[in-house]
Each structure stands twice: as structure tokens, then as C-alpha cells.
Amino acid sequence: MEEYDKIIRIIKEINTVKPSSDLTPAIMHKISLINERRYAWIWREIFLSTKGMFNTSPTKEECAISFISMGVFYLIFGLILLVFIKSVPANSEINIWLKLQSPFFILIALWLTVLGSAVWFMGRKAVQFARCGLVIYILIFVVSMVVMSSGGNFALLLETGLSIGAVLTGISLNFSVGKYGCASKVSGG
Amino acid sequence: MDQKNEAEIIARVLNGDRQSYALLVDEYKSPIYNLAYRMTGNLEDADDLTQETFIRAYQYLWRYDKSKKFFTWLYTLALNLIRNHFKKNKYNKSSEELSANLLADKNPSPETELIETQEISVYLLRLEDESRALLIMKFNQGLTFEEIAQITGKSLSSVKMRIYRGLEKLKELLKE
């Protein structure tokens, strides 16, 4: 750097220019004219409350609870279908499909609970297992959608909706368990 | 102004006390104005860009991360605005025009140094925007490499390398 000493010294000595004395009043005047947009505070609150969400890594318990909560959701969904679709006669493809949905959701619920429990009890060792399990979870829905595409528009529409939901929840659970995995690797926990 | 005091002022502004913001403007207007001036070579543009920086900072103050230094965040905003200003105005001023502006500097240096200082000021304007900003922040404004890295979002080694390249380019320009 010695060869640049002179240049550096000259740059250091470049005069500081003084801003005009009315710069602060001009800025403050413009600021006084800013009308906070209506409901802007809602966005501000949402931003501030979610700001840390993606920066912090979940603990293994938090991760496991998100899996188990998703499992509980499918369990409730499956039980509702079990109770309300009992009377549907199995005389068409769509009805057979509807009847199959409740055990299908209960199995999914069990699968997610198994994954959640594995993360809870085994911690980092179960991260890879949970991630593979989530891929299976997503694939089951996608395959189900493909199979049911022959069951008419309603079946396809419903299954598409469920598959999109499964893919999104699968990705978010995968993200969560991935973040936990990375954080535990760093901390050695 | 220490960081604690600054955090208190920011909290007051966020709670609706607009007038407290003037304290932050007074504290940082000079470095931001000088950065804008050395980047554009024009006093009017420097004035406009400084005003715009502080207004933008006020509007987005709620996004400011309190764990970081306020002035680094302010510098980042200023540099983005300066960059946009260049894009909008497609800066094509001749070096004569720029030097005429710079020669109008108040408080000149002692006679012997004056020509060199003005030369460097003009050659600085011939550098790429990024190199110019880095050299000004490092040597004219005395920021640390870490602070510059935080402002520009670049790694420490990348900042050092770019500053070195900027000096090299400046040296070549002076030889011409």
C-alpha cells in the first residue's frame, strides 16, 4: 500500500463540503408533509412480528410439534370424513375414492406423527429420515392426484387442492427441519 | 452520538415523535452530503440526494435492524439512491464540467496541495461509481473496512480488493 500513500493522503485531505444551513429544515418540512398511508401500521406490525421468524432456527421440539400439529390436522380431517361419508354408497369410482380418503388421511396423520416423534426423540439423527419421510408424504398426494384424475372433475379438483396443500406444507416442514438440522450441526447439538 | 442515544431517538421517532428525527439529520447530514457530492460532483444533486436519503430513511425506519449501526444503514440507502440517480440521469458530464464544479469548493487546501487535491477529485469522478464510493468512504470519510462491507453487503476481502483496484486505477489516471 506504500506506493499509494500519496494518493491516500490527498484523498484524505479533500475538503469537506458543508451542507447548506437550511438542509435540516427542508428535510423536516418534507417529512411533516408525509401522510402515513392508512393501515400502513398493519404492514409494519406484520413485518416486525415476522422479521425474526426466518432468521432464527427452530428447536427440535418446535420442529416436532409442527409435524405433529400437521398430523393432528389430518387426523381430524380423516375422522370427519369417517363420520360423515359413512352413508355414501360404494357404487361409483368417486364414492369409492371418497370412502378411501378417511383411512388415507388417518395414515398420513400417523406418518407425520412418527416423523415428528423421531425428530423429538432422536434430534439431529432423525433429520434425514424426516426429510425423506416428507418426500414420501408429498409423493403420496401427487400419486393420489394422478390416480384420481379418472374420477371426474370433482375428484380431480379436490385432490389437486389437497396435493397443493400437501406440497406447500411438506416444503415448509422440510424448510423447518432443514434449518433445525443446520443449526444443530453448528451448535453440535 | 452514541449507539444507545441513537436507539432512543429512533424509538421516539417510531413512536410518532417526528421532531426527534431532526437530531439524526443533524448528526449525519454532513457525511451523507459529502458522499453524494463526491459521487456526483454537483452540489445541487448532493443536496437533493441527501434530502431523499433522509426522507427514505424516515419512511422505512421501522425496517431498520437495531442490532446494526444506524449510519451503515443510512449509507446503504444513500448509495442505492445515488446509484439510481446515475441510472436515471445517465451521467455523461465532461471532466471539465465536473472539475469546474469541484474547483468551486469552499475552504481550499494550502496552495501547494490545491492542484493535486483538485486533480484527484476530478480523477475520482472518472472512476467507476463503485470504486469511487469505496475510496471516498474509506479514505475521505474514514470508515473501516468492516463498516464498508456492511454498507455494501460485500465480503471484507472483496471490499479490500476493490479498494486496492480503485487505487491502482487512480494511479494510472494520474500518470496519463
3D structure, described in words:
The complex is a heterodimer of chains A (189) and B (176). Chain A has 189 residues and is mostly helical. Chain A folds into two domains: 47 residues, no CATH class; 128 residues. Helices cover 76% and strands 0% of the residues of chain A. Chain A has seven helices and no strands. Chain A is elongated and about 90 Å long. In chain B, helix 2 packs across helix 3. Chain B has 176 residues and is mainly alpha-helical. Chain B is built from nine helices and no strands. Chain B has two domains: 92 residues, RNA polymerase sigma factor, region 2, helix turn helix motif (Rna Polymerase Sigma Factor, Chain: A); 50 residues, Winged helix-like DNA-binding domain superfamily/Winged helix DNA-binding domain (Arc Repressor Mutant, subunit A). Chains A and B meet through helix 1, helix 2 and helix 3 of A and helix 2, helix 3, helix 6, helix 7 and helix 9 of B.
Oligomer designation: heterodimer
Instruction: Sum up the overall morphology of chain B in one term.
Output: globular
Q: Overall pLDDT of chain A, averaged? A: 78
Provide the domain count of chain A: 2
As a percent range, the share of strand residues of chain B is under 5%
Helix segment count of chain B? 9
Question: Which radius of gyration of chain B do the C-alpha atoms yield?
Answer: 17 Å
Strand tally of chain B is 0
By secondary-structure content and strand pairing, the structural class of chain B works out as mainly alpha
In short:
The complex is a heterodimer of chains A (189) and B (176). With 189 residues, chain A is an all-alpha fold. Chain A has helices spanning 5-13, 23-32, 40-50, 60-84, 93-122, 127-148, 152-187.
